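User: My instructor asked us to take a sequence, write out its structure as tokens, and then describe one feature of it. I'm not sure where to start. Here is the sequence I was given:
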Amino acid sequence: MPSPQKAKGASWEREISQFLTDRYGEHFMRAPGSGAYVGGTNSVRKQVMHENTIRVFKGDIVPGESFSKLNIEAKSYKDFPFHQLFLNKTVKQLEDWIDQAMTVADPDDLTMLFLKFTRKGTFIVTQTRPLFMAPAGSIQYQSEKYGTWIFSELNGFFELNSHHVKTYSQNTHTSA
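Assistant: Let's start with the prediction itself. The structure tokens for your sequence are:
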């Protein structure tokens, strides 16, 4: 039987998969295992794997067929030090999550962190892109290692940026 933390994480991954499936009409699903299979020192495995196989092991969510450049990490936690975001401080926990997601990302991937905090809400942290619009209440977060990210409420972000997420997640996207 899985630990309560693993069950909580798996439940959140299923919620994300359903949210994206409903929004885009393509099938998204939880990835078997973890992104560590092709991340960090295991990145050499990508050299002998087919592109579709890499997508399955890259992050926590296997994206829909037309989202070949989408890399998703999911986190569900009890609490988060939001106050550090407003003080323009580096948030170690967030840095660790971004680093975890970026170690499996290819250079042209759109990397997103889907975050859920008990009794606080659901959020998205994503790399900034020229066409992305930040909803009211969003915060720009400056990662020490990976540049500028948007930290936003999940639904508000997708209401403004669904089309752009799909554009940036496709093989044929432009960097406009």
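For the description part of your assignment, you could build on this observation: The two ends are 47 Å apart (CA to CA). Try explaining in your own words what that tells you about the chain.
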